[in-house]
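Forum: Protein Structure Q&A
Topic: Joint prediction for protein chains with partners

I've read a bunch of threads here and the consensus seems to be that you should model interacting components together rather than docking separate models afterwards. I'd like to see that in practice. Below is the full input, 814 residues plus whatever partners are listed. Could one of the regulars post the assembled result?
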Amino acid sequence: MAFKRNRRSPLAAIIVMAAGLALTGGGYAAATSAVEAAKPVSAIATAEQVTEGKKLFAANCASCHGKKGEGSSGSNVVPSLIGVGAASVDFQVATGRMPGQASGPQLEKKKPQFTAEQISQMAAYVASLGEGPAIPTDAMVAADGDSANGNTLFRINCAMCHNAVGAGGALTHGKWAPALDGVEARHVYEAMLTGPQNMPVFNDANLSPKDKKDIITYLKYVEETPSMGGYELASLGPVVEGLFTWVFILGFIIAITIWLGAKSN
Amino acid sequence: MSNAVAEKKKPGFAAGAANYLDERVGAGGILKEFGRKVFPDHWSFMLGEVALYSFVVLLLSGTFLTFFYQPSMEFVIYDGSYGPLKGTEMSIAYASSLDISFDVRGGLLMRQVHHWSALLFVAASGLHMLRVFFTGAFRKPREINWLVGFMLFVLGMAAGFTGYSLPDDLLSGNGLRIIDGMIKGIPVIGAYGSSLLFGGEFPGEYIVARLYGLHILLVPALILIFIAIHLFMVVIHKHTHYSGPGRTDSNVVGYPLMPVYVAKAGGFFFIVFGVIMLISATFTINPIWNYGPYDPSPVSAGTQPDWYIGWLDGALRLAPSHWEFVAFGGTWSMNILIPMIVGIGFLVIVAAYPFIEAWVTQDKREHHVLDRPRNAPTRTGIGAAGVTFYAVLWAGAATDLIATNFKVSLNQVLTSMQILLIVGPIVAYIITKRACLALQRKDREIVLHGRETGRIVRLPHGEYLEVHEPLGEFEQWKLIDFKDYQPTLARPNSKGKITINARIRAAVSRIYFEDRIIPVTQTELDAARHDHPEAIEAPVEQEAKQITQ
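Posted by a regular:
Agreed with the consensus. Here's the joint model:
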């Protein structure tokens, strides 16, 4: 009977497990909501953000863009930031394109130099210089639109530079349309809205917010759906397929012919 | 007498099989003859087989696809399994191709089998042609078979192109638009030709059905006929072989078709089939659902034809776009016409090469022993120039991908390729010819003085010598068995006149054979064997003298 007294209740394991799940799950939910809260989703900036943003701007951006973001039109053309809006700042700085490392046909994407908070402060400051497109909310960029409409719009408006599945493509004189695989939905939206670097602007009259959401839905579908036909060979089309045929298929078969043609010892 | 002989000889497997058919269809004699055909063993002789087997795979997989494909350009609203196209307006041709990919069991695999084997078919044919070219297998009596093979290569491109356009997706539609533009670029007849082909203004409603007819009837029938002629001629001519002891222009050394090659080739067919299936099951090709239905307005980045049309696309890309002028009430698109002329001209030269070389050499002998490429330096040089020319055009179709992947300017890539297209073949010719001559010289050296062994021997009086090992008979044969051609002179004909033809031939012959390495003669060989120790010592002495002077 001592054995029985010491024995735990059969419900103990379930209770412990439930408590553990509740703890980790609740903690995770709390943590993610905290992260969500830190995201720059608000269009209305506080005065404190603007002040902080002005300091960051003076230290990191003003040397090229001017003290008040007026840009310069001399021998070294630097765009004015008055009226480009918070969306532009968020796209350029959060994808690491700004601050630029070297001038060239196009700025490279790289590791972001600032934290999300700093970026939102700079965005608030630039937005205070003149009215411009705001950073889209999470609901605006959620990939839950109509992927078929997004597919059609993407094919008509984007594929000529970015390739049919967004694998990227070449433009003239060293410029290029980057690959869209792995690009955050918010940045895709901001790029359409502000037309960064060599990209044209697709404003809300051209592609409505719903259209933009559909395009994002299509891109996320392509990104998340595994390939139907096997390895995709970088989705670059017939050139890669031809190269693969010559190098790997024919190479493999030639190796077999050499084996078949070898004299038996 | 004859009965007695027949009793003594026990019929083999080939003879037995022949007897069975002989009693029924009287084909025994042919079969017996055929079964005893001898084929030499070498890996490079199997490249044509690869093309043949991929054609068989093409026929099998293509038949499967015809069960489900509908060549109609009528519009439908797509309602299949692929989400991002649901509700999109498209042609029945595209919708049925999507159904093959997503809703027919095994359909996507069969589409991929068909497409990969098509790429392999043309690639293997091309490589087989290169083997034939560089070994001189096109010489008398095989000039006509070279032409038949050439036709097969061109038909392979035609089959590929007509098939590429059938899914009626955006990529293939853009390919058709380029063909339309090329036809319209031909002066006078261009516009008529285009409306004849498309049944009106591009794209019209007929082109897919017309291409389908060509793709499944005319082109494969022609390919089959040419394959039959091609193989028949191989049987008539017998197979070529590489030089070696006992191998001459009047024999073939190898194994009989029955049973050795029937087993070997049959097994090889399944290996090729297996490789194609393996690749098709693991690697995507032409994901048509990504490209979307055809619509003449959008052109997506990275739009390229399949590899075998790539060189023509490259020719169009490399032509400067300002070569266009308005005259006589029309636009003359030289930027389209000149690439077309260059492409056709290149093909004509490829087809005519055996006849050009025969005219230069005036060699009327039959050749069944193949050349090592180095032993025909000018031909090998010309071949290398042709390969370079083709390769630059081919790479020209990928200028945009080269630009993005190597992070260079698209315009600079284009300019470099334009320069390379002219300079590349010349440089390739010179380097290859010189390399061949150097290799021949090396061969001569090895035959006469033997191989360097790296063994240093010290003689009693203190001199050091490296021991050279003479070649074996078999190895030596390969190095000395080739024909020597000399430049022909422009001689007067029976009327005592030196014709222009003779002058041109003499000039070309000089280019071909002015620099040449003469094969080692028996006398030279005997002398080298006899003087072998001296041959090693002599240069050493000379060097010593030079130093003391």
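Strands of chain B lie at 38-39, 75-77, 89-91, 241-242, 255-256, 324-327, 330-333, 369-370, 451-458, 464-469.
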